[in-house]
Amino acid sequence: MDRSEPPPEVAEGEDFGYRLFPERHSEAKLSFLTTSLFTFNHKCQVMLRIALDTNPYAQLLLDAMKQSGCTVYKDRHFACEDCDGCVSGGFDSATSQIVLCQNNIHQQSHMNRVVTHELIHAFDHCRAHVDWFKNVKHLACSEIRAANLSGDCSLVNEITRFKFGLKQHHQTCVRDRAIRSILAVRKVSKETAEKAVDEVFDSCFNDHEPFGRVPHSKSDAKYAYRDFQNRNRYYANL
Ligand SMILES: [Zn+2]
């Protein structure tokens, strides 16, 4: 689909089936629906733009993708859509498109994390031949990396870092989230998901590319982004 066209929600706004029931055709109701759908989509697009332009996690990943020959374009590779349940986003490997769930993302910080998480999947898809559907270990590895590097587990850390050892807790959080992510997208048993995550955990948890470290906060991510840029400047001069 050509994503530069106006969002389908707006185009379909006039046809909610109300015309079949003339007595239910309420101008107020129709315009409210059209407006709120448009607002959800518009708000999602605005937050996406802010994430891509200002969030250091996203910026680093966009640069890394570009360098790996997989340049990401806002209009072509992102879609703001309504999703079922409480899903926040997803990566569609068939189209290399990141779906952002406009009905479930309401805050900029949440948008930043979802964009980062899905960009890590896109990065893995770009750099390696990931078999998302047949090899559950491949999926497990990317989910471990996404949970570890996107900040998904950092907020929890802030709250509980005095209760548990920081490092231990971070690992537990990453493991749990990776297992839950697999169960959300594949029809496998909990045991299968746990086994896959545990088998690849050490190597995937310690693979910090393209960050070079675990960015626990936005300032960590800023340093990582600066180092990434310097690293490339250095290699470019060789
Ligand atoms: Zn994921």
Protein described:
It comes from Pelodiscus sinensis (Chinese softshell turtle). One of its GO terms (molecular function) is metal ion binding. The chain folds into two domains: 33-127, Zincin-like, CATH 3.30.2010; 129-209, no CATH class. The chain is built from ten helices and three strands; from the N terminus they run H-H-H-H-E-E-E-H-H-H-H-H-H. It has helices spanning 8-11, 27-54, 56-67, 74-77, 108-127, 136-149, 154-160, 166-185, 190-205, 218-237, and strands spanning 78-81, 89-92, 97-101. Strands 1-3-2 form a three-stranded mixed beta sheet. Strand 2 (89-92) and strand 3 (97-101) form a beta hairpin. The longest helix has 28 residues, at 27-54. The chain starts with 7 loop residues before the first helix and ends with a helix. The structure holds zinc ion.
Q: What structural class do helix, strand and pairing data support?
A: mainly alpha
Strand content: 5-15%
CATH topology of the largest domain: Zincin-like
Number of strand elements: 3
Number of domains: 2
Name the CATH class of the largest domain: Alpha Beta
- Give the radius of gyration: 20 Å
Large-scale geometry: globular
Low-confidence stretches: 1-27
Q: Helix count?
A: 10
Through-space gap between termini: 42 Å
Mean pLDDT: 84
Q: Name the CATH architecture of the largest domain.
A: 2-Layer Sandwich
Largest sheet: 3 strands, mixed
String of helices and strands: HHHHEEEHHHHHH
Biggest sheet, spatial arrangement of strands:
1-3-2
Helix proportion range: 55-70%
- What is bound: which ligands? zinc ion
